[in-house]
Every structure is written in structure tokens, then in C-alpha cells.
């Protein structure tokens, strides 16, 4: 199932059966038809497929009309037909003719608009322009934005619509109901996925729309950046593996990504040469003595006992002794 990156805007479609229903339009005598997808976007094409019943469709001629305008005539086969704008009615009629016998089935579509906004509760730096990833061991808030129209085209109040949430095919009765447009979902287990589905209907059942999405989590990471005294934090380049300290001091800043942030901030612990140095997002390194040297620096970001991320750096500082003669002597 295709997903849109972190903001999902999938528009639903109301299928009004004239001689059948939408998901499985049923055998109504000589042949049946199905429509896919069940909830396409307005102006999207719906695939109409004839299914064999008493009529031999392999030797039949199929005619398709959309709002009384013929759009297809030929062999019986799946055919794409366009639907209209949000709240407008589109009527599709399918006629099969075989051995001089004709049979007709019709469907009506009234598109509705349903968007899902995914809000992972995960750590990011302040003023981070991107969207957090789904955190391992955390949770995700999903907000539904519904724009359903009545048969007269009037917009229906979203707070008066009925929201039916399903997670991994299990209906969430406690989180469903009138006006329940927000849900908090636990992140899937590592290397797994989680499917969230929603059906929104008007209280009289005249308007309906649906949407679903799949959540996959990402392992947390930490990134280390240099904090320049004049330019601030240099977010355009993360420090990886090695870092040189040619001057008297350097200040580093750490940013955790995709750690759960359910009301708590990640704990940030720095280690210098394997020993705990300090906590917090910033550390200032000041080499002492003369000559050059090296050290190891690590940062561990954690939330509770389950979610952790680590970054390790090899530090070099100062300048080695020696002249510019042969062999560096």
C-alpha cells in the first residue's frame, strides 16, 4: 500500500449502489461488476471490471457510459473511468451484449475528501525544518481532516461525523465515535509495520470516505555538529568518525533524531576516553599540555531503558613535535 511521505492526503469516494455495492458489487443475474480502488481521489480513474455470471463475457461486447456519455466500446475488459470533483455525482453504466442479449449494470460515485496527518512523537533539534521519523518504542499521533459533502453539496461539520478507527484489522471501539478525529497509536515493533485504517461517515449514512496507511519505524540516531562562536551550530555538516582540534578549544553540539518524546527529553551522556564526562547537548573540549595527541569521544542518547542511540568520534589535537627536516626530524 503506497504511502505519502509523513503528510498523507488520500481522498475518499462514496459509492452509491444502484444495482450493487462498491466493494463487491455482487452477482445480479447475468454478470457483476467491481470498482477499484474503493475510495479513489476526486478526478481519479476508477477501474470497472466485469465479472462472469450467467453471461459469457469472453465473447461479449462492453459499452461504458459516464454521465450518459459513452467513453468505451469494445471487448469486455477492465476499463478506467474518471470520477468528478468532491461532492459531485458521477454515474457509470456498463452494458454487455452477447449473442444478441444485452444486460446493464450501473454505479454512482460521489467523491469525498479525507486526509490523514501523521505526527510522530519523536525527538528533533529545535527549529528542525523536517518531520520526525516514527520512533522505535514510541508512539504516533494521527489526525483525520475530513471534508464530506451532502447530496446538495453542503459541507458537513467534521465534529459531527462518525470516525471508525482500525489498527491491524482490530477495531478500536474506545477511540472511535462521533468527532473522534485523532488517535494515538503505538509504533510497530522493530522490523514490523502497522496498518491504520479509518472510515468516516455522516450520521445519516449518506456520505462516507475511507483511508488507510502503513507505519514503519526507524532506528534512532544522534548527529554531532560543531558550534562555531560566530556562526552558531553548523547543521550543514555532521561530524562523523574523526574530528580535529587545532585551536585552544572546540565546542560540539549533539542532536538526537527519532527517539521517543512522550513528554520527556532524551538523556544525553558524553564519555571521554571511556569515562563519563558530562551530560547535556553541548560539550567544550580544551586540550592541555604541549604537543599533539588523540582521544575518544562518545555520546549516548537514551529514553528509558529501551531506546538508545550512540555516536563515536576519534579526536586529534595539538601538533606533533618535530622540525621540517628529512624524516621529519
Short description, anyone?
Keywords: Signal. Residues 1-22 form the signal peptide. With 329 residues, the chain is an all-beta fold.
Could you explain the architecture of this structure?
- With 329 residues, the chain is mainly beta.
- The protein folds into three domains: 10-111, Immunoglobulin-like (Sandwich); 113-216, Immunoglobulin-like (Sandwich), CATH 2.60.40; 221-317, Immunoglobulin-like.
- The protein has no helices and 26 strands.
- Strand 18 and strand 19 (232-233) form a beta hairpin.
- It is elongated.
- The protein starts with 6 loop residues before the first strand and ends in a 12-residue tail after the last strand.
- Mean pLDDT is 84; it is low at 1-29 and 321-329.
N- and C-termini, Cα separation: 66 Å
Look at the structure and give the CATH class of the largest domain: Mainly Beta
Count of β-strands: 26
Number of domains: 3
Tally of separate helices: 0
Largest sheet: 5 strands, antiparallel
The SS-based structural class is: mainly beta
Principal-axes shape call: elongated
CATH fold naming of the largest domain:
Immunoglobulin-like
- Low-pLDDT segments: 1-29, 321-329
CATH architecture of the largest domain: Sandwich
> What percent of the residues sit in helical stretches (DSSP H or I)?
under 10%
The average pLDDT value, as a whole number, equals 84
Keywords: Signal
Topology:
Layout: E1 7-10, E2 13-17, E3 31-36, E4 45-52, E5 61-66, E6 69-75, E7 79-82, E8 90-98, E9 101-111, E10 113-120, E11 139-147, E12 162-167, E13 170-171, E14 177-178, E15 182-186, E16 193-201, E17 208-216, E18 221-228, E19 232-233, E20 241-245, E21 250-257, E22 267-272, E23 275-279, E24 282-285, E25 293-303, E26 307-317
Parallel strand pairs: 20-26
Antiparallel strand pairs: 1-10, 2-9, 3-4, 4-7, 5-6, 5-8, 8-9, 10-11, 11-15, 12-13, 12-14, 12-16, 16-17, 18-19, 18-21, 21-24, 22-23, 22-25, 25-26
Amino acid at each position: 500500500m503506497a504511502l505519502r511521505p509523513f503528510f498523507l492526503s488520500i481522498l475518499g469516494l462514496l459509492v452509491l449502489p444502484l444495482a450493487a455495492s462498491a466493494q463487491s458489487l455482487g452477482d445480479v443475474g447475468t454478470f457483476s461488476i467491481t470498482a477499484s480502488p474503493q475510495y479513489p481521489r476526486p478526478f481519479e480513474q476508477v477501474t470497472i471490471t466485469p465479472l462472469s455470471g450467467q453471461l459469457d463475457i469472453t465473447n461479449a461486447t462492453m459499452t461504458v457510459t459516464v454521465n450518459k456519455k459513452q467513453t468505451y466500446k469494445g471487448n469486455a475488459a477492465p476499463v478506467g473511468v474518471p470520477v468528478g470533483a468532491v461532492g459531485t455525482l458521477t454515474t457509470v453504466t456498463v452494458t454487455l451484449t452477447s449473442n444478441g442479449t444485452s444486460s446493464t449494470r450501473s454505479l454512482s460515485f460521489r467523491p469525498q475528501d479525507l486526509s490523514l496527518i501523521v505526527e510522530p512523537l519523536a525527538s528533533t533539534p529545535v527549529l528542525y525544518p523536517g518531520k520526525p521519523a516514527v520512533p522505535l518504542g514510541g508512539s504516533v499521533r494521527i489526525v483525520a481532516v475530513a471534508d464530506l459533502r451532502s447530496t446538495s453539496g453542503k459541507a458537513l461539520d467534521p465534529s459531527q461525523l462518525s470516525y471508525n478507527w482500525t489498527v491491524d484489522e482490530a477495531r478500536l471501539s474506545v477511540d472511535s465515535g462521533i468527532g473522534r478525529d485523532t488517535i494515538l497509536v503505538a509504533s510497530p515493533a522493530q522490523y514490523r509495520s502497522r496498518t491504520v485504517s479509518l472510515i468516516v461517515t455522516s450520521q445519516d449514512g449518506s456520505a462516507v470516505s475511507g483511508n488507510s496507511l502503513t507505519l514503519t519505524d526507524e532506528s534512532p540516531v544522534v548527529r554531532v555538529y560543531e558550534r562555531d562562536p560566530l556562526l552558531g551550530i553548523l547543521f550543514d555538516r555532521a561530524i562523523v568518525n574523526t574530528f580535529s582540534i587545532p585551536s585552544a578549544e572546540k565546542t560540539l553540539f549533539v542532536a538526537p533524531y527519532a527517539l521517543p518524546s512522550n513528554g520527556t527529553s532524551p538523556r544525553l551522556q558524553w564519555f571521554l576516553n571511556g569515562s563519563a564526562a558530562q551530560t547535556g547537548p553541548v560539550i567544550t573540549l580544551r586540550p592541555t599540555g604541549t604537543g599533539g595527541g588523540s582521544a575518544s569521544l562518545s555520546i549516548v542518547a537514551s529514553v528509558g531503558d529501551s531506546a538508545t542511540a550512540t555516536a563515536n568520534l576519534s579526536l586529534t589535537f595539538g601538533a606533533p613535535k618535530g622540525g621540517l627536516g628529512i624524516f621529519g626530524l
